[in-house]
Write a structure and sequence with these properties.
The longest helix has 24 residues. 40% of the residues lie in helices and 15% in strands. It has two domains: 259 residues, Crotonobetainyl-coa:carnitine coa-transferase, domain 1 (Rossmann fold), CATH 3.40.50; 81 residues, formyl-coa transferase, domain 3 (2-Layer Sandwich). The chain is of the alpha/beta class and 394 residues long. The strands form four sheets. A six-stranded parallel sheet has the order 5-2-1-6-7-8, sandwiched between helices. A three-stranded antiparallel sheet has the order 9-10-11, with helices on one face.
């Protein structure tokens, strides 16, 4: 048994935030029906390179455990199919620009009339309300507007986005959270509700202690590279062969750290004895530590520091991270059989449930792979499906 077994999801999403959300629902056992544009499909089917036998790495990364049907939702037959899907679904997820589905007659109010139990999750750049609600939202722009880019990067260089599309991914995670909460409430009330997820809202929430620093001081935090704004030393250092992370999170660790590095003269120095002092005098402290760290290889330092309870680690490439023994042991790289590509590696499921774990059951679908199957389940006859296909509706 899986947690969402028996739950049906109508998936109107494309690109990343929405598909990431619905993939998680599929991983946990929900039946996910992904609606795609005939002849084109999800935009990410064309994102690349890389491609393998016509399949996009981007699309493959966030669309497993779903069924794909193609449907022209502007046609009357297409709308009828959507109405039937809404009537039998528990959850609808969409990430169109606000107002798009209302024009088609499938906004939350319309869907709730068809199915009062529907949980309707809308993910957009700026949410369904406010002066910017009608604007399109893109990950890069949202990271910039949300303050994240202003605190990411070298202090002397330009602002940087995060290396993955985290504004999209975090919005997808919050959508999952909202859906789970709404399912819980529906068990009590019998009614669904609208979940309004704004990518910008999610970025503001992520500011966490950086927002707290601004609220307390009235001064915007600035880029500090890999430094922590309130802990020191807590950053990257260059060993003789590669960069490593070292996190000296409290004064007790600082005492031990100084002894290990042979820097006893710094241990009780008035400029460095306490964490607030180390943060204030970081520019004086960092070069001293760096000169010691660069004298040995990373493996030597990591072993020594870890043996003494001081968190430290390598900075791995994507390849190295995906092959790390802990990652493999935790089944965070899984392989599933794809009908075109054969063995297809996938990132695993991070939520580990002891009694009802999620599972990667099916590979990312080919465009329209399940159209006939789903339409037959909705009561369309073979002749009706053939007519829809001939008319370009599916």
């Amino acid at each position: 048994m899986k947690p969402l077994e028996g739950i049906k999801v109508l998936d109107f999403t494309r690109v990343l935030a929405g598909p990431f959300c619905t993939m998680i629902l599929g991983d946990m056992g929900a039946e996910v029906i992904k609606i795609e544009q005939p002849g084109k499909g999800d935009d990410t089917r064309a994102f690349g390179p890389p491609f393998a036998k016509g399949e996009s790495a981007y699309f493959l990364s966030v669309n497993r455990n779903k069924k794909s049907i193609t449907l022209d939702m502007k046609s009357e037959q297409g709308k009828e199919a959507v109405r039937r899907l809404i009537a039998r679904s528990d959850i609808l997820v969409e990430n169109f620009k606000p107002g798009t589905l209302k024009k088609l007659g499938f906004d939350y109010a319309s869907a709730a009339k068809i199915n009062p139990r529907i949980i309707y999750a809308s993910v957009s750049g700026f949410g369904q309300t406010g002066p910017w609600s009608g604007k399109a939202g893109y990950d890069l722009a949202i990271q910039g507007l949300g303050g994240i880019m202003s605190i990411t990067g070298d202090p002397s260089g330009p602002p940087y986005k995060v290396g993955v599309s985290q504004a999209d991914l975090v919005a997808g995670l919050h959508a999952v959270q909202g859906i789970f909460l709404a399912l819980y409430v529906r068990e009590k009330t019998g009614h669904g509700q609208l979940i309004d997820i704004s990518m910008l809202d999610c970025q503001i929430a992520l500011l966490s202690f950086q927002a707290g620093i601004y609220f307390m001081t009235g001064v915007s935090p600035m880029r500090k590279g890999n430094q922590h704004p309130t802990i020191c030393p807590y950053e990257t250092f260059k060993s003789s062969d590669r960069y490593i992370t070292i996190a000296v999170g409290n004064d007790k660790l600082w005492q031990k750290f100084c002894s290990l590095l042979g820097l006893e003269e710094l241990r009780d120095h008035p400029d460095f004895a306490t964490n607030p002092k180390r943060v204030q005098n970081r520019d004086k402290l960092f070069p001293v530590i760096q000169r010691v760290i660069e004298q040995k290889e990373s493996a030597q330092w990591i072993r020594l520091l870890e043996e003494n309870g001081i968190p430290a680690g390598s900075i791995l490439s994507v390849e190295e991270a995906l092959h790390h023994p802990q990652v493999i042991a935790r089944e965070m790289v899984r392989t599933i059989d794809h009908p075109v590509l054969g063995a297809l590696p996938q990132a695993g499921i991070p939520v580990k449930l002891s009694e009802t774990p999620g599972e990667i059951v099916s590979p990312p679908p080919r465009l329209g792979e399940h159209t006939d199957e789903v339409l037959k389940e909705l009561g369309f006859s073979g002749d009706e499906i053939a007519s829809m296909r001939a008319g370009g509706i599916v």
